[in-house]
Design a protein that fits this description.
This protein has about 240 residues and is α/β, with parallel strands linked by helices. It is built from 7 helices and 10 strands. The strands form 2 sheets. The protein has a 6-stranded mixed sheet. A 4-stranded mixed sheet has the order 2-3-10-8, covered by helices on one side. Strand 6 and strand 7 form a beta hairpin.
């Protein structure tokens, strides 16, 4: 029986963790062909499970800094807009099945009150995303919980994603969550703290492999599960091989 490979990646900023996770994924990821969904027929490189620990997630800019010539995955203005529309607001547009904010927004004030009153004495300040209807949705929420912890005079977030796009999703999600953490910390009167994010579904699609390779300055890490040629080929393997 093959055991799951559980990784811990330590980093400082969102930029740092984005780089380190991409590098580590090339070394330990599992490659498979997607057999259903939006990217059916494509390959995906995915961790069995990974926990990312960000010690200074408030570092600005929040958005990762790309090498010269590589398009940005996001920017701080877009992250702020994402935070306001999809995390902090309960509004759901007609064309949207749900937003994270519809679940998060009603729980913010109770969490603030709980942390203000009980502080480090509570393990109950957890914001849940999704309901019993989520299991029947075609695309249920990826972010499922935000666990809030006051310790050593600071507010820390421990979050869980069921599935997570490493290339573009992670930087914007973490940036938005950081802004939420800063807001809650200011409301309860403590310092801003660290962030821990766990998932069993952090991945790169084949069309993202060349971008991730460029993020690593074109150098494949030692013992990579992909060759440099495979990473450069990306989704073109479907027509070339």
């Amino acid at each position: 029986m093959t055991s799951l490979r559980c990784e811990l990646v330590e980093g400082t900023s969102i930029d740092d963790i984005h780089f380190k996770l991409a590098r580590r994924l090339f070394q330990v990821g599992r490659i498979y062909v997607i057999d259903h969904g939006s990217y059916e027929g494509h390959k995906r490189l995915e961790f069995d499970h990974v926990t990312a620990h960000l010690r200074y997630p408030w570092t600005r800019p929040l958005a990762p800094t790309m090498p010269v010539g590589l398009p940005p995955v996001t920017d701080d203005k877009t992250i702020e807009e994402y935070f306001m529309k999809y995390l902090f607001s309960a509004d759901v547009a007609e064309n949207e099945t749900y937003t994270y904010g519809q679940y998060i927004h009603p729980q913010i004030d109770p969490v603030v009150a709980m942390l203000r009153d009980q502080g480090a004495g509570t393990n109950q300040a957890t914001i849940a995303i999704g309901g019993k209807e989520s299991i029947l949705q075609e695309h249920p929420p990826c972010l499922r919980l935000i666990d809030c912890r006051v310790m050593h005079g600071a507010l820390h977030f421990i979050v869980y994603f069921r599935s997570w796009d490493l290339w573009a999703g992670l930087p914007e999600n973490l940036g938005g969550l950081q802004l939420l953490k800063e807001y809650i910390a200011s409301e309860i009167g403590v310092n801003d703290g660290e962030m821990i994010a766990s998932t069993k579904g952090l991945h790169l699609y084949d069309y993202q492999w060349p971008l991730a390779l460029a993020r690593l300055q074109g150098t494949m890490p030692e013992n990579s599960v992909l060759t440099k040629e495979e990473a450069e080929l990306g989704e073109r393997w479907m027509t070339n091989g």
